[in-house]
Amino acid sequence: MFGSLHLTRFFFLIQAVVVCIIGASFLFPWLMIVGKTLLIVSILATIVDVMLIYLPKEPITVQRRFQERMNLGDSNGVDVIVINQTLQPLNVSIYEGYPVQMQQRSKAWIALLLPRKRKTFHYDFTPKERGQYQFNDVVVFVRSPFFLGQRRITVSLEQQVEVYPSILQMKQYELKVFHQQTQSQGIKKVRRIGNTSEFEQIKNYVQGDDVRTINWKATSRKNELMVNQYQEERSQPVYCVIDKSRPMQLAFDDMSMLDYAINTTLVFSNIALRKGDRAGLITFSDKIGTLLPADKSTGQLRRILENLYNQRTLFKEGNFELLYQTVRRQVKTRSLLMLFTNFESEFAMRRALPMLQKLNKRHVLVVIFFQNNELEEWAQQPVATMKDLIQATVAEKMSTVKWSIARELRQHGIQTILSRPEDLSINSINKYLELKAKGGI
């Protein structure tokens, strides 16, 4: 019963005082009576004190609440609710059983719980990789009224949660794209060029509409600006192609480039489907991982989400020739291919270049790869020593390589996006909207 009992520092401090008093009684004999009396009183007080926290069989209950699925790379709220089941106030220390992936030491929440009351402790958890996370048991220390002892209670509260590609980001970007004032959110409003749209209706002019679409006859009748609204060409096949090879293992802010690409793919696919296009998915490394044909049926977004969640890789060398052969056999119609990859050197890019050129001849290829934020920060740091100068020079040179790769790809007619990881979704969406407007798909 008392295996969970822990005596406090206050108890040992009292016993130390008793020992000192008894020791001093060799010089002052009258202190012996004081010491013995204090010893007996402290022991009796400890017994009574401890019994008060052991009399209730279950003095507290604990609940943990969080959403059914957590979002990769986003802040997810977790609530730990502690309920006092007794008729007396309880001083408690609560230690949360964090998932191993958090790599966080449990810090105690200290609180006074009033009788029959509850208290909620909230924290935010930002998962950096997909998969299952397990929350462990919660440990609560209930301190006695006189703080002489405390009872350790382990609350069985093992729970599992799945971390999926960010549905939160998907919904946020959907609002940005289909909201009228998109410019302030980073989404560019691009005017249509060419004959890729059909007349749909006449509507009131709003800021950002192309002035070339103003319908002057309707404007004169209504005495307010009216514009022609056009419907974009729909049902065009759009594929997100994700490279799962070794360079995609590199991390920014503790999250791999692969997971940034996975989050963006979900965001992008949702926008494409909402625009009426057919969205598909291809993943590859040394072999083809997933090939989900482009479709716009009701369950397509769910299929894309599940496939993205289940992506696993050993981060081997990327086989671009196999990618080309697979696309040539499986993707029969001209499609938009958004290729998420990462070139760290010009040599690596040139090895893949022949296959990229072949893909670009048959389809509309957009190569998207990552800027190295840390290198750029090092290159811009103030130089105080020779070591700082060498580091800044090397960082600047390596950072410049990325821009050289992008320039060379463009020289070969391949559309390219060099993006910071945190801007990947917005840059990809803007490119898609630009291509839609210009009839580039």
Note the topology.
Layout: E1 5-7, H1 9-24, H2 31-54, E2 60-65, E3 69-71, E4 76-84, E5 90-97, E6 109-113, E7 118-125, E8 131-143, E9 149-155, E10 159-164, H3 167-177, E11 197-204, H4 216-222, E12 226-232, E13 237-243, E14 251-252, E15 255-256, H5 257-274, E16 278-284, E17 288-295, H6 300-309, H7 320-330, E18 336-340, H8 346-362, E19 364-370, H9 373-380, H10 386-411, E20 415-419, H11 424-438
Parallel strand pairs: 3-10, 13-16, 13-18, 18-19, 19-20
Antiparallel strand pairs: 1-9, 2-4, 4-7, 5-6, 5-8, 8-9, 8-10, 11-12, 14-15, 16-17
Distance from N terminus to C terminus (CA atoms, Å) equals 73 Å
Q: In total, how many domains does the architecture comprise?
A: 4
Q: Judging from the principal axes of the Cα atoms, what is the shape?
A: elongated
Number of helices: 11
Determine the CATH superfamily of the largest domain.
von Willebrand factor, type A domain
Return the CATH architecture of the largest domain: 3-Layer(aba) Sandwich
Structural class: alpha/beta
Strand content: 25-35%
Helix content: 25-40%
- Under CATH, the topology of the largest domain can be stated as Rossmann fold
Largest beta-sheet details: 7 strands, mixed
| Radius of gyration of CA atoms, rounded to a whole number | 32 Å
The beta-strand count equals 20
The unreliable regions are 192-196
Given this structure, which CATH class of the largest domain is correct? Alpha Beta
Can you give the mean pLDDT?
86
